[in-house]
């Protein structure tokens, strides 16, 4: 007997398309028959597994990601992983880009003023602001147009012709010497990006000068200018215009070619020059001698936005026309500038420069310790670009899920930040390597909870004797001031088994950057009144002050406790004899460069006058004269003050004297009425008593004089009172001698013509 092994071959065909989502596994049995229709001893089981269709790419991508300010760092791709469809790859590179160019100056930064940021970063003091806010004292920036900025900073536009800033000599002389640090924010493409009208097509583009300065040293003049030529930044430095030859430092930078904000910090310690662009050091590409160039004129001058040439500029400091000897060419500047400062002396440390530029938001990696072997992470200085590189897909997926977004600002700038993810793969077989499309999404920073800055502890009225205000130290206006900053946020009460919602207010530690005390109505009269503040204490704390007759502004980023101490020390002092009856002040504070403001605290100061001064004859006469001449004091009579054409000016004591005289007159009339009633009553009792007891009658042979105690007052006030015969010189008053209750009458009885009077 021979046994044969029969192998059955055949095809299995489906009649309907297989779908892994509907049924992943199909199982059935196959029975074989030979040619004699003999059945095989055993059936064969067939299992068909339907694999899902594989699409290489990123799985779990979320297009929208929300960020709540104050959350710290959040993962951007918590569920993202790469599917390679069993393709063997040996290198994976992913680039995450966060676009923040539209937020402030390139990213979200501290919204404090440039001076406050320098102080917070530990920079050396002594910088000079070359582009300050326009004011009567700093009028050289008044001709420059300003543009709005989301970070509350002041942005100036330059066109190289009419929009040019000429810094006064008094300011330029403070930045002399060959050791200085120049810092500024700049962006190409200002109000006008067109070339000058006199520039023909095809001609070489001229240099655009940022700042041009000739300063006077001890016994010589030095000259420097910072300009842009194409994508190159150049510093032209002349140590001594009368002897030394000029040197030019060149840097080839991509940052000067785009239209984004960039921070430049140029430290000159001749012959050493260091440039920081966005916090990163950049070495000069070329240093060379410029050969024979005409010497600049030995005149001190500092111009921003242009340099010497055929340029006629009106100097706002003395209303004159500047005539400058030509040096090189007509170099005009068409850009935006902000925060241009120069500090003479030693250069700034690198750590300070990095702090001044540092972004408070950006991309970050969660935990470097969890980074797998063979993985690399690169982050640019502005933290807007993060690059991941690796060779293992599993390790790469874990690394991608560790990419985070952080924002250290408690009050982050709300808005949309676009996100991009670009991936490149390298395979062993370049022909069949995968190609992944770019993913785009966006990060939404939600509106932060606005802080409530509350000023309290000061009553609506402050009453003190006028003599205290006239003292050498005056009177403190806000001795018990309290400043509290709190955040109100929603509380999920449903999770706690409560119905509805609630708001909870948490007191937090904040940094204020300004407070203002303003007199309401008339400005302070320097001859009569002033606000006193300890200038040394402000200087020690690094705070700045603007003291005018219209307001006092204290600026600088500091803690709430420091501002409380400073505001409590503000005193109000009056000159001798200039006390009035009221004065009103308003106090307000702000933070984040005025982004959030406090409530306005109004204080009414009342001056208490003594009664002796009110009843003094000369004072009363003066008050009456002032009140009776309305041509000198116009306006409405409000409260107990009488304002003149200058608001809050009053006639001292006039209204009070009138009120007191009227009340006194009323009291006198009441006393006289009571006196007359009692006199009539006693006279009737005397008449009845005389009919019964004739022996008790007084001897009326002598002269009796009755003196009215109110006669002197009535004569002085010009009041004529009809006594109806009571004060007749020949009339006698019949009273009971034992009635001593009326102690207000003085009776003088005259026994004879020559006898002395007698008092009872």
Automatic annotation (TrEMBL):
GO terms for biological process: cell adhesion; positive regulation of synapse assembly; positive regulation of synaptic transmission. InterPro entries: CLSTN_C, ConA-like_dom_sf. Residues 724-741 have a biased composition (Acidic residues). Residues 742-760 have a biased composition (Basic and acidic residues). GO terms for cellular component: cell surface; postsynaptic membrane. Residues 724-760 are annotated as: Disordered. It is found in: Cell membrane. The chain crosses the membrane at residues 650-675. Keywords: Calcium, Cell adhesion, Cell membrane, Glycoprotein, Membrane, Repeat, Signal, Transmembrane, Transmembrane helix. It is a single-pass type I membrane protein. Residues 370-714 form the Calsyntenin C-terminal domain. CDD domains: Cadherin_repeat (cd11304). This is Calsyntenin 3. It comes from Cyprinus carpio (Common carp).
């Amino acid at each position: 007997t021979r046994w044969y092994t029969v192998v059955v071959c055949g095809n299995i065909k489906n009649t309907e398309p297989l779908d892994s989502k509907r049924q992943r596994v199909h199982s059935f049995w196959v029975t074989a028959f030979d040619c004699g229709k003999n059945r095989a001893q055993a059936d064969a089981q067939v299992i068909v597994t339907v694999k899902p269709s594989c699409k290489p790419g990123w799985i779990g991508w979320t297009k929208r990601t929300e960020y709540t300010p104050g959350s710290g760092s959040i993962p951007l791709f918590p569920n993202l992983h790469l599917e390679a469809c069993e393709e063997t790859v040996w290198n994976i590179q992913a680039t995450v880009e966060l676009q923040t160019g539209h937020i402030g100056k390139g990213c979200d930064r501290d919204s404090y003023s440039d001076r406050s940021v320098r102080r917070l970063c530990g920079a050396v003091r002594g910088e000079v602001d070359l582009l300050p806010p326009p004011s009567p004292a700093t009028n050289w920036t008044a001709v420059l147009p300003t543009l709005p900025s989301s970070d509350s900073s002041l942005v100036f536009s330059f066109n190289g012709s009419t929009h040019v800033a000429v810094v006064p000599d008094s300011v330029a002389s403070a930045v002399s010497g060959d050791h200085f640090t120049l810092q500024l924010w700049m962006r190409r493409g200002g109000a006008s990006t067109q070339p000058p009208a006199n520039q023909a097509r095809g001609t070489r583009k001229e240099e655009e000068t940022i700042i041009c300065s000739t300063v006077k040293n001890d016994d010589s003049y030095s000259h420097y200018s910072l300009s842009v030529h194409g994508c190159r930044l150049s510093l032209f430095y002349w140590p001594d215009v009368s002897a030394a030859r000029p040197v030019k430092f060149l840097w080839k930078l991509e940052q000067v070619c785009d239209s984004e904000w960039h921070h430049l910090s140029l430290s000159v310690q001749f012959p050493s020059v260091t440039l920081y662009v966005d916090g990163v050091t950049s070495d000069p590409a070329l240093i060379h001698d410029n050969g024979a160039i005409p010497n600049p004129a030995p005149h001190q001058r500092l111009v921003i936005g242009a340099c010497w040439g055929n340029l006629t500029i009106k100097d706002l400091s003395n209303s004159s026309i500047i005539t400058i000897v030509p040096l090189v060419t007509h170099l005009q500047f068409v850009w935006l500038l902000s925060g241009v400062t120069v500090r003479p002396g030693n250069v700034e440390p690198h750590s300070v420069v990095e702090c001044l530029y540092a972004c408070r938001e950006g991309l970050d990696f969660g935990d470097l310790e969890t980074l797998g072997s063979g993985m690399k992470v690169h982050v640019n200085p502005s933290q807007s670009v993060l690059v991941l590189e690796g060779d293992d897909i599993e390790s790469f997926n874990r690394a991608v899920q560790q990419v985070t977004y952080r924002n250290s600002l408690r009050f982050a700038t709300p808005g949309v930040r676009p996100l991009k993810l670009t991936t490149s793969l390298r395979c062993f077989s370049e022909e069949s390597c995968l190609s992944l499309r770019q993913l785009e999404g966006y990060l939404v920073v939600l509106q932060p909870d606005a802080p409530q800055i509350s000023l309290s502890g000061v009553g609506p009225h402050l009453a003190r004797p006028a003599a205290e205000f006239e003292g050498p130290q005056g009177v403190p206006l806000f001795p018990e001031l309290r400043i509290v900053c709190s955040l109100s946020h929603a509380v999920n009460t449903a999770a706690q088994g409560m119905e509805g919602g609630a708001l909870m207010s948490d007191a937090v530690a904040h940094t204020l950057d300004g407070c203002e005390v303003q007199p309401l109505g008339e400005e302070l009269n320097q001859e009569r009144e002033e606000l006193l503040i300890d200038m040394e204490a402000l200087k020690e704390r690094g705070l700045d002050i603007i003291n005018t007759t219209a307001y006092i502004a204290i600026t600088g980023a500091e803690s709430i406790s420091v501002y409380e101490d400073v505001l409590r020390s503000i005193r109000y002092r009056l000159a001798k004899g200039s006390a009035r009856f009221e004065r009103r002040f308003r106090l307000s504070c702000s933070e984040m460069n005025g982004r959030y403001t406090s409530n306005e605290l109004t204080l009414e100061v009342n001056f208490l006058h003594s009664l002796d001064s009110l009843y003094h004859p000369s004072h009363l006469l003066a008050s009456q004269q002032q009140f009776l001449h309305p041509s000198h004091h116009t306006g409405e009579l409000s409260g107990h003050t009488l304002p003149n054409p200058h608001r809050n000016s009053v006639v001292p004591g006039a209204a009070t004297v009138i009120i007191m005289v009227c009340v006194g007159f009323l009291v006198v009339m009441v006393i006289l009425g009571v006196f007359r009633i009692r006199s009539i009553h006693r006279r009737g009792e005397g008449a009845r008593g005389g009919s019964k007891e004739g022996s008790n009658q007084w001897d009326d042979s002598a002269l009796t004089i009755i003196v009215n105690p109110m006669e002197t007052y009535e004569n002085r006030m010009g009041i004529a009172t009809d006594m109806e015969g009571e004060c007749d010189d020949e009339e006698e008053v019949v009273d009971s001698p034992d009635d001593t209750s009326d102690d207000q009458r003085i009776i003088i009885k005259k026994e004879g013509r020559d006898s002395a009077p007698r008092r009872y």
